[in-house]
Structures are given as C-alpha cells and as structure tokens.
Write a structure and sequence with these properties.
Blueprint: E1 4-7, E2 12-15, H1 22-31, E3 39-42, H2 48-60, E4 62-67, E5 72-77, E6 85-86, H3 88-91, H4 101-108, E7 110-114, H5 127-135, E8 139-143, E9 146-150, E10 159-161, H6 167-177, E11 183-187, H7 193-204, E12 208-212, E13 216-220, E14 228-231, H8 236-249, E15 250-255, H9 264-272, E16 276-279, E17 284-287, E18 296-298, H10 310-317, E19 322-327, H11 337-343, E20 347-351, E21 354-359, E22 367-369, H12 373-385, E23 389-393, H13 396-399, H14 405-411, E24 415-418
Parallel strand pairs: 2-15, 3-14, 6-7, 10-11, 18-19, 22-23
Antiparallel strand pairs: 1-23, 1-24, 3-5, 4-5, 7-9, 8-9, 11-13, 12-13, 15-17, 16-17, 19-21, 20-21
Helix pairs in contact: 1-2, 1-7, 4-6, 5-6, 6-7, 8-12, 10-12
The structure holds uridine-diphosphate-N-acetylglucosamine.
C-alpha cells in the first residue's frame, strides 16, 4: 500500500495549477446518462472517484474515451439496452454513485442502486434524495441493501421543499426533474457552485432551468438530447487546500485562471487571520504570515465556509497565536484527523461538534494514518509545516480527490515522495 514521505519546513514559491472540480464532474457524468448523443467533458480531474463514476457509466452501458493528457472525457451510449443498475461493488467505494439514481429513473423509468452505506465522516443517509424522487412520482423500495425505484409512466414535475440542505439530493432532484413532465420547483436547495456547473451542463442539453439565489430552482422538463461540450469549473476545494498550504509556507505562491469570487468566504477568513492575499480578476497570490491570528468559524452550506476545508483550516489554526474554534455543523464525525494532528504536537480539544485549537504549536513529524479524503490532505499540510519527516499511511483516500498532488507541490519546493 502506498505511503507518502514528507520532509517538512520547505517553503513554497511559484504557481500551482488547479484541476477541474471533482464534485462538479461527478454529477455532470451522472447527468450525461440523460444524453443519447455524445457528451464531451473538458477539464476533467482524473482522480479515483472520477474513474469510479466512469466505471459505473461503462457498467450501465456507456462507452467512454479518456484523454488524460488533455483532461478530456467523451461519453456516448454504447448499447440500446441499458442496465439500470448501480452495483454495490462499484458504489461502495464512492457515495456519489447514488447520483445515477435520478437520471436512470428519469430516462429509463427504473433503477436499482446500491445504498452507499456509512463512511468515516458520518452515517450519510439518502432520505432527502428519495423524498425528492418520490415527490416526482417514483415508487421506491429498499431491499437487500439496494434502492429499487420505478416510475412506469415517467416522472412528473412537482413542488419540493427540502427539509434540510443537501448537495447530492439537490443534484439528483435537478437531473431527474429535467426529464419529468411539466414544471418542478425546488426550494431550500443547496446552491454550491458545482450545482450551478451541473445546471449549465443540463442547459446545454436543452433543459430549461432557472437558478435563483434564494435557494429556489425551477426546472421545466424536456426530452431532447444533443451532442455537447462542457468545461468543468475549477476545484474550489483543491484551491482552498493549497491557499491554506501557501498561508503556512508560501514565500509567494500564485494561482492562475481561477475565480476568486467563488471562494470569497475562504479568502476573507484567511485575510482576517493575517494572511497576505492579493486577488485580481482571475488570479490569486498568497504569502505566508509569521503572525497568524486565531479565528472562530463554523462549517455551513455554500456560501458559508465548506466542511471540505475544515481539516486543512485546523492545521493553519495550530499555527495561530491564541485560541481558534471550529464548529462542524455538516457532518457528525468529521474530526478524525484530530487525533493524528495531536500526535504531531497540536493542542486540540474536541467537545461534540466543537474543536478548540490552542496555538501556536510546534508540529513535529510522525507516522500517521489517513482516514478520509480531506483528513488525509490536512495531514499532508501538517507534514509540510512540521519539523523532520512525516509518513502518511492509507493515502488511497487522497487519490480519491487530488490530482497530481505531489507533483504540484514539489514543483513549488515541497518534498513529498510516494513510497
Ligand atoms: C457533497 C460533497 C462533499 C461535501 C458535502 C457537503 C460531492 C460529490 N460531495 O456531499 O464533498 O462534503 O457535499 O458540502 O459533491 N443528508 C441527509 N439526508 C440525505 C442527504 C444528506 O440527512 O439524503 C445530510 C448528510 O448526512 C449531511 C448533510 O445532509 O449531514 C449534507 O450532506 P450533503 O450535502 O448531501 O453531502 P453530499 O452531497 O453527500
């Protein structure tokens, strides 16, 4: 099993290119099930989760052609007879597999999709996905670890108010409603930028979707399909991760061809902590600070601070002078990185969903274990800023979501080796 060996305290300078967004690619690939013609997707990050979704599309009956050099993916229907199934063996490794439920049901009127099960960061239920699809007329049965759904006469538009905000349930509902008869009005939706990217893909397919900033999305179902090209947005979580890395170690690090407006919450928080960040239309430049200030923050749905950057931010907080606090309000068990950070010298106390981080701490290298995707990358950041060497085990978690991580960071001066 691969490990990472990190030699700490290397300063970073230069520029880091940001890949396409994993969390935008996954629902877009699921939505391509609606298309009988060819979908050409550009700026695809070829990370493990994306390969899993491609494997799922192949299993269902689509042909895919991958151009890794160009980050390009072509998808087209291979068979007339589609398997409307997402098997456990594929879905178990990636919760986003449940995103094929809406499109299969809308297009082929039935689907059998494995329940994703729990994962390290929480129970991760799918009740909100099912609630939306039932409102669109689906009959749903849970049996033997699978969701069996059918809509013999097709889905029909409806008004759906989500009782709480879910990114995946909003995506499943939007894709399914795109082929439903009539109008669907979704309220209390997630409005993450990746959802806006999915909507822009669906619009190219001919769907009529109105996105309203008050968490309301209106969809008028359609049935045409088109050959189309779509370029996936940049990965704002990858960008946020490297911004935090640069706040810790950057002599001067630049990020080109990104949109700072999309991550304004994160940038404002880093600025409040005393990090020097200069933004222009499409670029960001970051310098580390010797005087990092503590801060309190809470993870929230977009446009709030993302839970996917909580672990990385905690590493920065270990270097702030004073007490910082994080309230994790999205997932119930997302502090798995804390015990490993403490082994490296961090002073952190957890009480329920609140973490108190007492800084500044001197971190020192250790052998640590990655537990989930974002926890793994927080250990990479900790290893980079720590004295001596850090070894990170179970880095397959990291490969689920970060494209060329060692290459990108080593190019700017880090010392990270895959063993
Ligand atoms: C997506 C992201 C993930 C991110 C998360 C929150 C992708 C592929 N993944 O995950 O990286 O951490 O958003 O920003 O885009 N919930 C329910 N019932 C449901 C669905 C969700 O109770 O049916 C709860 C979850 O347990 C969680 C909260 O809602 O507490 C938010 O989860 P959700 O937004 O659905 O996350 P994902 O779409 O799985």
């Amino acid at each position: 099993m691969h490990k990472l060996l990190i030699k700490g305290k290397k300063l970073l300078s230069g520029s880091i290119s940001i890949s396409g967004s994993k969390n935008a690619t996954l629902p877009i690939l699921a939505a391509s099930i609606l298309n009988d013609k060819q979908s050409i997707i550009k700026n695809v990050p070829f990370v493990k989760d994306v390969f899993t979704m491609i494997e799922l599309l192949n299993f269902i009956g689509f042909k895919t052609s991958i151009n890794r050099k160009k980050n390009l993916l072509k998808i087209f229907k291979k068979r007339k007879k589609i398997k409307t199934v997402a098997p456990y063996k594929i879905v178990k490794t990636m919760r986003a597999g449940v995103l094929v439920l809406g499109p299969l049901l809308a297009k082929y009127k039935k689907a059998k999709v494995s329940l994703p099960g729990g994962c390290a960061i929480g129970t991760r239920p799918v009740d909100l996905h099912l609630l939306a699809l039932k409102k669109l007329g689906a009959k749903i049965l849970i049996k033997d670890g699978y969701i069996y759904a059918n809509a013999k006469n097709g889905l029909v538009g409806n008004k759906i108010r989500f009782p709480s905000i879910s990114v995946g349930a909003t995506e499943n509902a939007i894709i399914a409603a795109s082929l439903a008869k009539g109008k669907t009005v979704l309220t209390n939706c997630a409005i993450e930028p990746e959802i806006q990217d999915l909507i822009s893909f669906l619009k190219k397919l001919g769907c009529k979707i109105l996105f309203n900033k008050n968490r309301k999305i209106v969809i008028n179902g359609m049935s045409q399909t088109k050959s189309l090209k779509h370029e996936v947005m940049f990965d704002r979580i990858e960008l946020g991760t490297y911004l935090i890395g640069s706040a810790l170690l950057g002599k001067k690090v630049s990020f080109l061809k990104v949109d700072p407006k999309i991550i304004k919450t994160e940038i404002n928080i880093l600025k409040k902590m005393g990090i020097k960040i200069i933004t222009s239309n499409k670029n960001i430049v970051v310098h580390r600070s010797a005087n990092i200030k503590p801060i309190n923050l809470k993870t929230e749905p977009y446009p709030g601070f993302p839970t996917d950057l909580q672990a990385q931010m905690m590493v920065l907080m270990t270097k702030a002078k004073g007490l910082s606090k994080i309230k994790e309000s999205i997932f119930e068990n997302r502090f798995m990185h804390v015990s490993e950070l403490k082994r490296m010298g961090a002073k952190i106390i957890i009480k329920n969903n609140l973490a108190n981080i007492y800084g500044p701490s001197k971190l020192s290298g250790a052998e640590v274990m990655a537990t989930d995707l974002r926890a793994s990358v927080s250990l990479v950041l900790a290893g980079m800023v720590a004295e001596n060497r850090t070894i990170i085990n179970r880095i397959y978690h990291l490969d689920r979501g970060y494209e060329n991580l060692e290459k990108k960071l080593n190019y700017c001066g880090a010392s990270i080796k895959r063993l």
